[in-house]
Records
---
Amino acid sequence: MDKIFVTGAAGFIGSNLVDRLLADGRSVTGWDNFSTGQREFLQSALAHPQFRLFEGDCLDLAALTRAMAGCDFVFHLAANADVRFGLEHPSKDLRQNTVATFNVLEAMRANGVRRLAYSSTGSVYGEAEIIPTPENHPFPIQTSLYAASKAAAEGFIHAYCEGFGFEGYVFRFVSILGERYTHGHVFDFYKQLLEHPERLKILGDGSQRKSYLHVADCIEAMLHVVKLGTAKSAKHRVETYNLGADEYVQVNDSVRILCAALNLQPRLEYSGGARGWIGDNPFIFLDTKKIRATGWKSALSIEQGLVRTLQWLRENRWVLQKR
Amino acid sequence: MDKIFVTGAAGFIGSNLVDRLLADGRSVTGWDNFSTGQREFLQSALAHPQFRLFEGDCLDLAALTRAMAGCDFVFHLAANADVRFGLEHPSKDLRQNTVATFNVLEAMRANGVRRLAYSSTGSVYGEAEIIPTPENHPFPIQTSLYAASKAAAEGFIHAYCEGFGFEGYVFRFVSILGERYTHGHVFDFYKQLLEHPERLKILGDGSQRKSYLHVADCIEAMLHVVKLGTAKSAKHRVETYNLGADEYVQVNDSVRILCAALNLQPRLEYSGGARGWIGDNPFIFLDTKKIRATGWKSALSIEQGLVRTLQWLRENRWVLQKR
């Protein structure tokens, strides 16, 4: 793993990963269509001699294949991460998550690259029957287009590992927090409170229970497992790991932590209902025994992650204008 | 359920379903791209006043949407069913199974059609850990592009049921046998024996265990469940049912049954190995308790199904030239 191709390189997680890999002494080729990626996130990478950046979309298979030439490992992080708005443009998830992943696999095949890590989501469990939810949870029902498109991508990755001898690492993330965070509830709450410090609108009844992980912990976990090479000896040459904290919080806990950090006491206005939107999952908490058994553990608590995310947003208000 | 749209209407299962629905007094609109469908299978349907046929591909969303106008239920059976050759043209499964299904969902949404039945496959369980395999088997690893593309389609159907209030029936089939059967091991074996009655080449070591269901039983099962409307009250408005016989046979049993029916004693030549090809599943046997609990049961044994399939092929040798 010396020459690494990162899709979604200008994104929240992608750009943090790029910086981490460069610090590790790897050569990195970044790929991003800049639909939500930010050139600012690659400022330090772009000054690094071991970094190359290509602007392109995963739907352009020919360009993707050319850009990947010479690489030996792929982190496929590019995605439409717009979980909430899937029903407004259903084909976006299909194209940007499923077809895009398929193209990454085809570009790898064309280039003889056979190792990849993929950022999937804990949403693929739907409304899980078992919580905390293990990787071998019963065959789920997909409750959002986002999750359906990610689960679909997982399946194609499996088939390439089995059929073409690829080595695959599928990581099912909870929501990720941290520096360069550009969407999600911390973003929404902070943006609201900047405009109207006296009130905060909350989707659902605030009792939704969610787990979060700091981006640095997320990246360490992926690199840890990939370095171990656990999929090499897996039955179908693919391993799946839940990635999350060992705890969860209610949306109301997040509100309390964020308001305390901002020293604000807004009036709370709930939209009501157990779900914030159609397809919202009222309780996401992943069982992370499998990855912890490899020796990884998270360094930051959810509260620390929330506070650091807010701190970064306060220092980078420009990002609030980007969406 | 009066005006029914059937994709893959000229196929093996589709054409049998069309005839059955017309006999039941329904209006049927058939859709087929004739990539593997046979116009001959629709001969009697085409003479029926309640049948309309459109030639088109599910990838042509505009034409599909126009053809579906006025219908109130969709049986989506069109698919690339070429399980064995996925690795030779990986994008075919993505396009013909996943994207095609997505387009069917979009055409339904555009037309206000909200009820569908889908022919998925027992292959989605991969190499199942639990046999007989129940619908809530642990989240599987896909071992073929075919299964990955079908599992992906299932997920999008789920998301449309949850997000747009569709009512969905997902049927995971074992291999289907019977009149108008146009591919599979009975087809291959009979074709071989017509050309070389003295020897039979068998993929794998012959010990693969598989379950089969006769097409008439398959169709009765789907209609039975759809009439009950079980998905209306399901948590996510979608129900999944395994469809198979209550038994399985080894490939060697099939060989014995078919050779006896043909009164032949060929030399058996095995390619060897537990799997006939990469992605072949050495043991497929589905737990069908869930659908049997609704009152359905199969009428024909696997042996009866095999013999009737062979009989039909003997009377319709023209079909052997089609592939």
Note: The mean pLDDT of chain B is 95.
---
Amino acid sequence: MTTEIPFNKVAIIGVGLIGGSIAMALRSKGLCGHITGIGRTIENLVTAKKLGVVDSFTQELEDGVKDADLVIVALPVKKTPEVIKRIGAYLKPGAIVTDVGSVKAAIIEAVEPALPQGVHFVGAHPIAGGEQSGVAAASAGLFQGHKCVITPTESTDKAALAAVKKIWQEAGAQVVMMDAEIHDWILASTSHLPHIIIYNLVNAVGDTANRRADLMTYSAGGFKDSTRIASSSPEMWSEICGMNKGNIVDAIEGFQKRLETVKKFIQAGDLSSLTREFAKAKGFRDSLAPKQPALHKSHDHKPHEGPCNHDHHK
Amino acid sequence: MTTEIPFNKVAIIGVGLIGGSIAMALRSKGLCGHITGIGRTIENLVTAKKLGVVDSFTQELEDGVKDADLVIVALPVKKTPEVIKRIGAYLKPGAIVTDVGSVKAAIIEAVEPALPQGVHFVGAHPIAGGEQSGVAAASAGLFQGHKCVITPTESTDKAALAAVKKIWQEAGAQVVMMDAEIHDWILASTSHLPHIIIYNLVNAVGDTANRRADLMTYSAGGFKDSTRIASSSPEMWSEICGMNKGNIVDAIEGFQKRLETVKKFIQAGDLSSLTREFAKAKGFRDSLAPKQPALHKSHDHKPHEGPCNHDHHK
């Protein structure tokens, strides 16, 4: 890093939506020289090259990372520590390795003791993305206005931390430094629990649908809208559950306790307690509307979310 | 009903999205003469009159229903039987009363023994609506292509049943005759359980948000999208729970059993069972996409629901 460009050689492992977008952001901000894409699927790498997201590509880890100043691992969470441990031996002294996983403590725990002296790991998680996927959907502006959590530890190299922080700031993200444990606790609630509950809701309804083939023709749009995230990758979510076990189990148990209470209100016919419970949820949900950037079009906005929502349920 | 028009005088009790839309459908198909709107809120009734949805309006039940050939009660489920019981005494012999409630057995049970001889009740539930509400959103085409469940009993008058069936068919709905108990069992799964679970998910996350004010800034669009129905009316949903108690408690218990199993898979680190569970949900959810009419725009379609959905959770 003696030239003006912070990172002469960058390697991106996993050139999908996130990996491709951070490559484009680095390039657009003049933060890098040569970008090598590393992946398993040749077609995707060819596309990434054609789009100018990477300058070259390889399917060989050693080949791809050996001269890199910066390695960004944009793989599913289970693969992430495995791959980082493997590349450790190929990296040059001073190289910075960072990731984008939505689980942090387990990755750090596996990676930190395994990397050779002089190779610096910094954990990161950009909370962005959306419904699209693949390098064809990548864009330099993907992270604009979104949070990116960086999770340094006591042994994180200060210069490497500053460099990773700069990458995400230049990419337009709001960088927040946080303990990995806090990050994992937060994400268990805001993201991991919702996915598990929605998967479970779909299966519970699916059980009933097994008993009556035309069941779902008796549903309005609400169910489909609410369960879109159940189309997410089962493998990816299973891995996340495996790597954030404690927080997720706690979050599930909090949910279970509440649901048991709600069930008791219904059984007892205590509709005023039930109304209070639902009203609390409505209040919290309504409070979210203006605070977050609208990812979609107008259907995300307030006017469609009035008190008489789903008025057909009289 | 001696003229060519099936219903000379129609009374609509509750002139909102559903009540207003069925009035417009009746009118557009030439099925009615005069339509009277009955409601508590004068502003809404004035709007309904201005829009031509009703020909006249009143806030007095007796006044509104006394000469009616057909009375459509489009009120929340708890009010529905109360109001039908009250109007019984004012109705002329041969009058038909129908409703639009999303719970049927409890309404029928309360209403059938209470109506005078010669006044005919037919329970119905059009499964349509959407995110809008109020008479200003009403349209004659609202029910087009949607299911309308009609729930006759042994004592339902055959001619009244045929008349109500005709109304919904003319309104464009796919009419299905069904036992009230079957209807309530189906809706518990396809609609009531999802609302309860989403309310509960919002409250579980809300509990965590109470411990950390900025919690929800660490969430992508998934949570907000999945929980839109938590903005529905707490009173309405509490009433529905009170009136479909048995089926809803069964549905909750089915959900609870599954969630406990999922939790155990996570605790045991049994990721292959967990993946199978999530994959089953994904399979069921993906199978719904082509079957239902898209209520929104393109975000509802297949191309956005690929396997790498929410790719940012690496």
Note: The first strand of chain B starts at residue 7 and ends at 13.
---
Amino acid sequence: MTTPTITAFERSPDGGKGLARDMRVRWALEEVGQPYEVRLVSFAAMKEAEHRARHPFGQIPTYEEADLVLFESGAIVLHIAERHDGLLPRDTNGRARAIAWMFAALNTVEPPIFERSIATILEKGEPWYEQRLRTLDKSIRTRLTDLSRRLGDAEWLDGTFSAGDLLMVTVLRRLGSSGILEEYPTLSAYVARGEARPAYKRAFADQFAVFEGSGKAQT
Amino acid sequence: MTTPTITAFERSPDGGKGLARDMRVRWALEEVGQPYEVRLVSFAAMKEAEHRARHPFGQIPTYEEADLVLFESGAIVLHIAERHDGLLPRDTNGRARAIAWMFAALNTVEPPIFERSIATILEKGEPWYEQRLRTLDKSIRTRLTDLSRRLGDAEWLDGTFSAGDLLMVTVLRRLGSSGILEEYPTLSAYVARGEARPAYKRAFADQFAVFEGSGKAQT
């Protein structure tokens, strides 16, 4: 198999916290033991034709493997999960349910969390900021209450650790210093279990090394 | 194969326009020629334990087939596409790229569009409404400009019609009467091509019949 190449921010705006979407792909690759190369891209280069040929929306991450070029972190994680053992159950129904959690993470839980992280940057000086934040926090809490109730005492969302948990943990981590995650001990513990996985730690260290300027990533 | 049962709104808030997420699943089932049953749920019933066992976030659609229960429209459409011909290319790379478009529709293009539809309902009276709408419209236009450029003169996003196009068309339709889609003739024509498909028309008619109160759906 060709060693895949992914793209990541040359300078991640998250200060090395592993909140950018390349973290999901790095983590998935570490879980399945697949080595990879990293091409760092600047914000300017992301919007140029060469990168847009890889990613129509001029974002990261992308994934290149021989003549396959993919974009969208969810699709890349699913591609990795389908080609290696360890991220999807082998039984057909369990596999379909794990994929449902992948979509739930990205289409149901992430949107209000992402919206909040953008609002804290772009709307901070606006007169309505406090009220807007309350509205967003309410949507987020609705999702987290439901998610927490479903998770209950289980270790992972549906049986063993899957690509659904991988995406959900990265999405919940985007709540960062908002303090909202901490209101849900069940979910805080769930995120901590994800962060404790050796593959997570390796992926985190690698993206942090880029932030620290000591990454061995190819350019 | 067991006839699957999906859930849909007993009273869709969209006035029969086919903007609710059951439309995606209906359309996918029609494309592959799979008959299905519909269980209609009220807003109150969606939040009760029986439905939450199917859908942790108390939403529609869900999909039941023998002992498999799924939620998330994207996951359901993918499940259908994997089990029948017609919604995913047969070659491995083309399949992975079609799935990338599915995630792009739901995680990159839909969030600002959905956010706008919610804002026009919930924030209409707020002092920040005009400015908020301008911000949202700007994000939407950024996405549509990129999408329109990538589509270019092609009929579909990547080769033949796929589950990626199916989801993208339903997402773009959510722009409704905003007038934004009409600024992009390439994308308007793309949506019209989707709506012209016989399977789309059958799915649309079926959801409209529910709205009109003449649906033969099971309860």
Note: Chain B has a mean pLDDT of 94.
---
Amino acid sequence: MEEDEHVEPWVEIESMVQSGDVDQLDEFMTNLPPGENARALSRLGDEEQAEILGLLPQKDAAALLEELPEPQSVGILEHLSPDQAAAIVSEAPSNQQANFLGAMGSEQAEAILDRMTPEDAEDVRQLVQYASDTAGGLMVTECLVFDKDLRVGDVIDDLRENAEKYASFNVQYAYIVSPEDGLVGVLRFRDLLLSSRQRPIVSIMIAEPVSVHHDVGLDKLHLTLERYPLFGLPVTDDNNRLLGVVHRSNVQKAVQEQANRSLLRFAGIVGGEEFRSMPLRLRATRRLSWLSINIFLNLLAASVIAYHQDTLAAVISLAVFLPIISDMSGCSGNQAVAVSMRELVLGLIKPYELLRVIGKEASVGLINGTVLGAIIGGVAYIWKGNPVLGLVVGAALAINTLLAVCLGGAIPLLLRKLRQDPALASGPILTTLTDMCGFFLVLSFASAALPWISTP
Amino acid sequence: MEEDEHVEPWVEIESMVQSGDVDQLDEFMTNLPPGENARALSRLGDEEQAEILGLLPQKDAAALLEELPEPQSVGILEHLSPDQAAAIVSEAPSNQQANFLGAMGSEQAEAILDRMTPEDAEDVRQLVQYASDTAGGLMVTECLVFDKDLRVGDVIDDLRENAEKYASFNVQYAYIVSPEDGLVGVLRFRDLLLSSRQRPIVSIMIAEPVSVHHDVGLDKLHLTLERYPLFGLPVTDDNNRLLGVVHRSNVQKAVQEQANRSLLRFAGIVGGEEFRSMPLRLRATRRLSWLSINIFLNLLAASVIAYHQDTLAAVISLAVFLPIISDMSGCSGNQAVAVSMRELVLGLIKPYELLRVIGKEASVGLINGTVLGAIIGGVAYIWKGNPVLGLVVGAALAINTLLAVCLGGAIPLLLRKLRQDPALASGPILTTLTDMCGFFLVLSFASAALPWISTP
């Protein structure tokens, strides 16, 4: 709108689709600055996006899908014919295939699997079964595996023969296995380069390599890669057989997605990413499902006010302070929630260390509660010239701040213990509790001090 | 507390330090599960943590520091003698050195630099000058560089000679440069492996490689690596001279830290990470600095209520709905804020696309505002048996929800235009505005409808 002279890329893309100039379209999209493809496509309808993907060479279409945010890619795949979708998906790495198909409707996924090669389809069926944030769910099956009895020359010959196939593997190590013991070692390309052809590979491999079981979770994977400077971790089953490799980049991507998901859930976006290119009905109902729970929690908290209406009628100026106490306690508590969530992710606290967290929060709460209470009490005093009113409001906020930070620190630990997502539930639970306590404190202090603060 | 039979690792560490058994300590810490070192050390005092690091072999101490969250590492380094700190820092990769020293007090950093080798110190001084979230700030200077006139055999011989030195580089490519043209190509180890010694490296290198200028920002780096499946991007200056390499893993780490920072700021933790092992004064004052701004914004918003006290006195039950309207509008608006922040990071919207965002939000706001307004209006009607009261409260929430989502969607774009951090400022700005509007709407609707809703 504001930049009239600038032609937005989706306008150009549309005209190339209309003129049917596929080569020009392919070149245009390949040369758009990184990130612009996602933006351009998101401005077009689902059908239109699918049409464009269908026009591009399959390899380029697959690369494009990998570049887009996942919900967008899946949306496009769902609008392609199963034949086209299968051809494009087959060009992606195995874990990406599993992600795409796992996020789709099961009928559509089956239709695509039926059209892939039986081996690829089998791989994907296996991968889809692992939970998404585990080593099994994050690994790729594309990796180089050699028998432990080979020599350096054999490996180099195999690499040379299959150079084409391996080129897309993006691997830095080869894994050495034996039929009896499963994974026995890791071979670095670098060492291969510097050794004579006759050496047995077992003599240059790194024996007893770091590996992870397929059900190891994301937090643990992340911490393991923080410790060891590896590009990938081999993933094994109960019998130490090699299943695949988790690449560092996939773990980091998953951790990053987790942090984003936390941010979104913390802000009440539930049920996956939301982009404004998604259908209105989906966006509105997803947001509403969370809001409508929240409104009933709010009504619950506000019922405390209704219960004390007489006090409020006697001291109407209290009504000014109720929303402030509610908001400030929520803010103080949310700070503590965020710190607990970070410490949990980093492994700096365990869910059972509840008392330590509450102790640490209580001291912050005492200080901040005193300061905030003094501010609000001072304002109330000056405004109405009534020191008792100041005391009532200030004391209520001070005590409620203390409560809020202790609750805020504790709730994520409790939720984690119950295997719930702290990012999602901490906020609503916290604010409902702190609202109820805050309203109760102000109004019951006020009713006790009524003779000194009521307006005639 | 709850697990009495379990000896926490910091207790064991303390006893090993006291008995002075360094080998045992080193082994114990190396074998703690990933993540446990950070937790164990965070339970000890700064002096004690520094003492432990000083006892360990420098290489292991450096590896340990890399494993810890950065604020914790920097805290420990600051408590070491400059000699010890310099010895340990020298073992870390160059960008890590720059991060550590950049986060320290400048006197302490200088003292450490003085004790490093002149070349290392010079590298770090260079690196510190680049802004942290740019290619320059994220790159390492450790990379393999060869002149374009060499042959495959020359490169292999050099790799063999310097195997020791290169082992710590963790690189997958060598970069090919010419004195005149700077960076001209990239050589993959794999291709080196498969070629004869006599071939000139220019014939097997990838010419015109993807590279980035040192001032390219994190978002762009991230999008570039989404497109190209590379382990690292070469970083160049204005004259195409090679300065270093940004590894994919460092970019992903930075993106992840950015997402965490957003979450923390969104929740009002400002000024860097907060861990509960940090000093109380720092934790309390950092949180308070944000809260004390917020409390004045709250007072500003609540002044709208004070202004309409007479209306409120006439219809005291409105006081029950004020905090609900405030909280619900804040929640609706924050959902829109989160979606805008995500879309900005992913490049799906540009700051100038304000009208598109407001349009998309308005339709969600109309639907959700109607539903939420109906709920709250219905409750008010049933509670007081007064349909006009229901209408007043419901209409106010409906309109305010529409306003809140439009503001919530727009504010991050405006802040980005002004080069401010949306995660930090969006929340307080949003809630202040929506509170003011919300209070104003309810109370002025109520005052217009006073004859029908006032309690006698």
Note: Residues 9-129 of chain B form a domain with the MgtE N-terminal fold fold (CATH 1.25.60.10).
